[in-house]
Write a structure and sequence with these properties.
- The chain is of the alpha/beta class and 370 residues long.
- The protein folds into 2 domains: 184 residues, Glycogen Phosphorylase B (Rossmann fold); 175 residues, Glycogen Phosphorylase B (Rossmann fold).
- The protein contains 15 helices and 13 strands.
- A 7-stranded parallel sheet has the order 3-2-1-4-5-6-7, sandwiched between helices. The chain has a 6-stranded parallel sheet with strand order 10-9-8-11-12-13, sandwiched between helices.
- The protein starts with a strand and ends with a helix.
Length: 370
C-alpha cells in the first residue's frame, strides 16, 4: 500500500473534550504511513487540536451546520468531500445528526460506516425528546458499531453487537513524580493548599453546580482548600456567578483548556467528577494513572474504575457526605504512587488500543475493497 488509507472522522469539533482526546491519543500512536485521520466538523472556526492534526498529516473540513442549521448544505459539502477524497471508511461520533451523515455516506458508496457511542445518557433539556428520536435513527445506515464502554454501547445500540474501544491514555506521561508535583503546585500557587481538582467542559452534563456545593463543604472542613477547574464551555458565566454567590472567589481558579493535564493532575490532592452521566469518564482514568484518589458519581461508567483509588458516591447523597468522602480517600496508601501497571492491566494504555484500532481499520478496508 503506497498511500495510507484515510479515515474520515465526523464530529462536532475538535475541541478539548473526552471524545477528541480519545481520537488524538490514538492518532499520535498509529502508524500514519498506513492509516491517516481526517476530520469533518460541524463548526467553522479553528479548535483546540486543529493545528496538531495538520502537523500529523491530517485534514480538517469546516462546516457551519451547528450555527446556520442548513442540513442540506452540510450534506452536500460532505458528499463532495467523500467523493473527492474517495473515502472507504467514515467513523461518526455525532449522534444528533449522525443519521443524515450516514445516509449521505451510504449514497456516496462508502462501504464502511462506523457509528460510535460516547455516552450512557442524554442531558434532560428542552431538546431531550428530539435527541432521543435522533438517537434511534442514528444507527440505521451504519455497517459497524463501536462504543467507549459497555454501558455506552448498550445505551445506544441496545441488542446490536458492538466493539468497545477503550478511551486509552499514554500511561507513561501520567506516572507520578514528586518533583513534577512540587513544580506544578508552585506554578499554580497552591504549594501549601489542599487541592481539589476537576477536568471537564463547563457543561450541564458535568454538574459543576453540585461540585461547587461539595467544595464549599470541603472548605469548611479544610480552610486551606482550593478548587482548580480545567476546561471551557457554555456555562462559564453561570459557574462564575455561583462561585461569587458562595463567596469562593479567592478559592476557585478557572484554568481554561489545558494541554498539560498529565502535569496538572499531579498537582491535585483529590479529583472529583460528579457528572450526571459519562460514557466512560477518561479524565477519571487519567487521574488514577497520576496516583490521584478519585470520587465519581454513579452516573460515571463502572468501566472507569481501574484501581482501588476509584470511589463511587450517589448524587442523592448530600454535599457534606461528598466532602467527607473526598477528604477520607486521600489517606489511601496508593495515593501519589506509580499506577502504570493498573492502567496497562485494565487495557487503557494507548499503545495497545492504537494497534487494535489501526488493524481494525486495515481489516475493514481490505474487506471492503476485495
Amino acid at each position: 500500500m503506497s498511500e495510507p488509507i484515510r479515515v474520515l472522522h465526523i464530529l462536532q469539533r475538535m475541541e478539548a473534550g473526552g471524545t477528541q482526546a480519545l481520537l488524538m491519543n490514538n492518532y499520535r500512536k498509529i502508524d500514519r504511513t498506513k492509516v491517516q485521520f481526517d476530520f469533518f466538523v460541524e463548526y467553522p472556526n479553528k479548535q483546540f487540536y486543529d493545528d496538531e492534526i495538520v502537523s500529523l498529516g491530517g485534514k480538517v473540513y469546516y462546516n457551519s451546520v451547528r450555527l446556520d442549521g442548513k442540513i442540506k448544505k452540510f450534506q452536500k459539502n460532505l458528499a463532495n468531500v467523500l467523493k473527492t477524497g474517495k473515502y472507504k471508511i467514515v467513523h461518526v461520533h455525532t449522534y444528533s445528526i449522525g443519521y443524515f451523515v450516514l445516509k449521505v455516506a451510504k449514497k456516496c458508496g462508502v462501504p464502511v460506516r462506523i457509528v460510535h457511542s460516547h455516552n450512557n445518557e442524554t442531558v434532560h433539556d428542552s431538546k431531550y425528546y428530539l435527541k432521543l428520536f435522533m438517537q434511534k435513527l442514528y444507527p440505521i445506515y451504519a455497517t459497524d458499531f463501536m462504543a467507549c464502554s459497555t454501558d455506552a454501547g448498550k445505551y445506544l445500540f441496545k441488542n446490536r453487537k458492538f466493539d468497545v474501544l477503550k478511551n486509552s491514555i499514554d500511561s507513561k506521561k501520567f506516572i507520578f513524580n514528586q518533583e513534577v508535583r512540587k513544580k506544578a503546585r508552585q506554578e499554580l500557587g497552591v504549594s501549601d493548599k489542599f487541592v481539589v481538582g476537576h477536568v471537564g467542559r463547563l457543561h450541564p452534563q458535568k454538574n459543576h453546580q453540585f461540585l461547587l456545593q461539595v467544595f464549599a463543604e470541603i472548605k469548611k472542613k479544610k480552610p486551606n482548600s482550593v478548587l482548580l477547574l480545567a476546561g471551557e464551555g457554555p456555562l462559564k458565566n453561570e459557574i462564575v456567578d455561583q462561585v461569587k454567590n458562595l463567596g469562593l472567589e479567592d478559592s476557585v481558579k478557572f484554568l481554561g483548556n489545558r494541554k498539560d493535564i498529565n502535569r496538572l493532575d499531579q498537582a491535585f490532592d483529590v479529583f472529583i467528577l460528579p457528572s450526571l452521566f459519562e460514557g466512560l469518564g477518561i479524565v477519571a482514568v487519567e487521574a488514577q494513572a497520576a496516583g490521584l484518589p478519585v470520587l465519581c458519581s454513579t452516573g460515571v461508567s463502572v468501566d472507569a474504575k481501574i484501581s482501588p483509588l476509584f470511589h463511587f458516591l450517589s448524587l442523592d447523597e448530600a454535599p457534606t457526605a461528598w466532602a467527607d468522602k473526598a477528604i477520607k480517600i486521600t489517606q489511601d496508601d496508593l495515593v501519589h504512587t506509580n499506577m502504570e501497571s493498573y492502567v496497562v492491566n485494565a487495557g487503557y494504555d494507548v499503545t495497545n488500543t492504537a494497534c487494535w484500532l489501526q488493524q481494525y481499520y486495515l481489516d475493514k478496508y481490505q474487506q471492503a475493497t476485495k
